[in-house]
Amino acid sequence: MRDDQQTTTDREALEAIEKLGPREKWRIVKNIAVLGFAFMIHFTAFHGTSNLQSSLHTDGSLGAYTLASIYGSLIVSNLFLPVLVIRFLGCKWTVVVSFIAYMPYIAAQFYPSFATLIPSGLAVGFGGGPLWCAKCTYLSIIAEAFSVATRRKVRTEYLIVKFFSLFFVFYQLAQVLGNLISFTVLSYGATVDGNETRSIVQSLSVNVSSTCGANYEAPSENAAQGAIDLQRPDAGQLNTLTGIFLACMVAASVSVAIGVDSLKRYSMIRAGQADQVSGTRMLIITLRQLGNRYQLLLLPITAFIGVEQAFIAVDFTKSFVACGLGISYIGYAMICFGLANAVAAAVTPYITKQLGRRALIFLTAIFHAGLVTFMLLWRPTGEYYKYSIMVVASCWGLADGVWLIQINSLSGILFPGNEEAAFSNFRLWEATGSVIMYATSPFLSTFQKLLFVLGIMTVGTVGYGIIELMEYRVKRAVTEKRFEAVSQQVD
Known about the structure:
By secondary structure, the chain is mainly alpha-helical.
């Protein structure tokens, strides 16, 4: 009976798609491309700004606390706002409004203080929950529409991974563009005593190999840290950078408003579901999603993604890069991270198809654990220090790209029809991991944080492994039941 209902639904959806025209598949791809482009230029501004926070705003750890406020409000946002906002505005206009919520944070960089950065950081978090939930829901639903348009020639599960991959290729390029702009603007015309270009800014009285890297501690706990030159760039350079980034965010909002189709165009894909569930009911479902055993087992690996992204943005840039090379080289290092991230996003679907999801995730865990171990033991020094930073940042970017796509898409695969609640929980626990890292940044050494990254990754990988084991047993049981039914009919 259920199969008959599914066949009827597929037939109705196919007829609705065909009424839209033979080129609808390309229109769907266009929507993904425009959405990805908009996220790219929007997060060009956000990442380019955020990567500098912990090194630029060191007074009272303002930069770290600003980032903590962003992800702290993101936790609240993910619990209460995504479902309500998306039901009211729809996915497309939720993205546009959320983009606008980020703009005060960029504008606050003109006059950085606790009074400007903390409130604007809170606004970013409140906009971030609906933004990412709307994006994930949009990609999942148009993947189903594309699958119907191709008469199910390509599995929806594979399409979700592929569409997330295409999106993240654009998104991860934001790290490249944002940091390229940052590196170019902050390096241009930087001088010492009016006539010498300043590049590597470290005091000769400080042993970088014993002070930077995993040995780095908060300046308040290590007096020698004050000898490291983390001098702010010129105000004119920072204002130019802020102006460029603000223009990027405006362009992103306009791109989505004009170039992305509303999901009402594909409402027949979810006929019957959206009409039966009210906004209040969906909020309850979001909270109840935490009772799902798969969701609970996903929490550690989801939190790990937030932890490792916070580490690379705050602690790596400060303790491995700015400590020994100077603030302007943060952009240089994060360009490598962003390029590797984009490459990982592009190739992950093809590697997944060859190796399978399980093998790729476990191999990534081993690779990332080896990288963290290397960073714990490595002492930054020597003429190849700058190139070593490039390699480390690139390797971290490769691992992060795989984690992002696989765990994002897994939330859509495990909870079909309940994506909004699943993706809301994804952002909730990712943000929780980030807040933990940002809030402890002024107090813990980099060595301790690396150990924490390694520990939560191990727990998260075990949790994911349990999910795969449970899925294997369920599918095996279903197969055996079907075989028994056929055998009885034959007898």
